[in-house]
Amino acid sequence: MRLLVHHLTEYTYPEEARDSFNELWLCPVDDHRQGLLDFRLRILPEVIPRSRLDYFHNRVYEVHITKPHRRLLVEMRATVVTFPTPRPPAVAVQALRPLAARFFEFLAPTPRVPLHPNWLELLKLRPPEAREDLHGYLLKVTTHLHHLFRYDPRATQLDTPLLQFVQGRAGVCQDYAQAMLAALRSVGIPARYVSGYLATGVGSEGSHAWVEAFVPGAGWCGYDPTNNTPITEQYIKKAHGRDYDDCPPLKGLRRGGGQEKLVVQVQVLPLPNP
Predict the structure, then answer these.
(1) Residue 88 lies in a domain
(2) pTM score > 0.85 for this model?
(3) pLDDT tens digits for 42-94?
(4) Could you give the angle at the alpha carbon of 81 between the alpha carbons of 77 and 86, nearest 5°?
(5) What is the CATH number of the domain that holds 10?
(6) Local structure of residue 29 (DSSP, 8 states)
(7) Is residue 233 a contact partner of residue 84, using CB atoms and an 8 Å limit?
(8) Residue 3's CB: how many other CB atoms inside 10 A?
(9) pLDDT beyond 80 at 207
(10) Residues of 41-75 as b/e, b for ≥16 C-beta within 10 angstroms?
């Protein structure tokens, strides 16, 4: 499936800002389930971004604007082709036990996904059985969390603690994903946070988030509790990490400017096959 992505972020400031430094996680990945055909980045005020790979091998662009400005615009356009994802092979949950040391960073707690609460009890989930099919259990967790929560962009903010979301039972895709991370890591299933886009479905109006869990014999497999589905050709991945803080669309610092206004527009359009 060929998809066109347009992501525009615009900050305006009541006063002049200067010495603005930003990091952008906006470039779709080029891997086994999707190919990056075209990528263009436009920044105003004009500046030449620097590119690097971060710790998790995500493509990051660094932007440093030294001159005074009252507007920062970041516009990304990309064309991506996505491929069908085959069903993972049947493998027991206990096959993960020898891999715990290898995937420690995706089993450990983070500030956004602490592991001291009893997440299974709070989320009304049961632990998997040792010989239970891992993919089947992951699908059950995906469906359970989808029905447990209500999608409501007004219910949470970017800094809302995970426990508050779980107790309130309403939030956005970021919250759903981090709740699933907490559940899976609590039972020894390596899981990582994924940032990207969705062509159709709940969350397609902006950047979307889901989870990848490691399934022996298949690698990292994606699950979206917000929409109750494994990842399909409708999904475009940008980056992954331990939680949201490892791969936000944009983060940075600046001097001055006052209280900014932010406008974000995201559009994902299917394209005809050549």
Answers:
(1) no
(2) yes
(3) 999 999 999 999 999 999 999 999 999 999 999 999 999 999 988 999 999 99
(4) 140
(5) 2.60.40.2250
(6) P
(7) yes
(8) 23
(9) yes
(10) bebeeebeeeeeeeeeebbbbebebeebbeebebb
What's the CA gap between 55 and 51, in Å, rounded? 13
CA 206 vs CA 10, 56, 182, 202: distances in Å: 14, 23, 24, 10
- The CA distance from 11 to 28, in Å, is 22
DSSP state of 202: T
The residue to which tokens 């420690």 are assigned? 104
CB atoms within 10 A of CB 273: 7
Nearest of 106, 252, 110 to residue 192 by alpha carbon: 106
Question: Total domain count for the chain?
Answer: 2
Q: Note whether residue 199 is domain-resident.
A: yes
Q: In Å, how far from its chain's centre is CA 88? A: 21
C-alpha–C-alpha distance, residues 42 and 153, integer Å: 28
Yes or no: say if 231 and 223 are a contact pair by the CB < 8 Å rule.
Answer: yes
**How many residues does this entry show for the chain?**
274
Q: Model confidence over 230-249: pLDDT tens digits?
A: 999 999 999 999 999 999 99
Q: Is there a single domain that holds both residue 110 and residue 176? A: yes
Please report, as a single letter, which amino acid is at residue 57: H
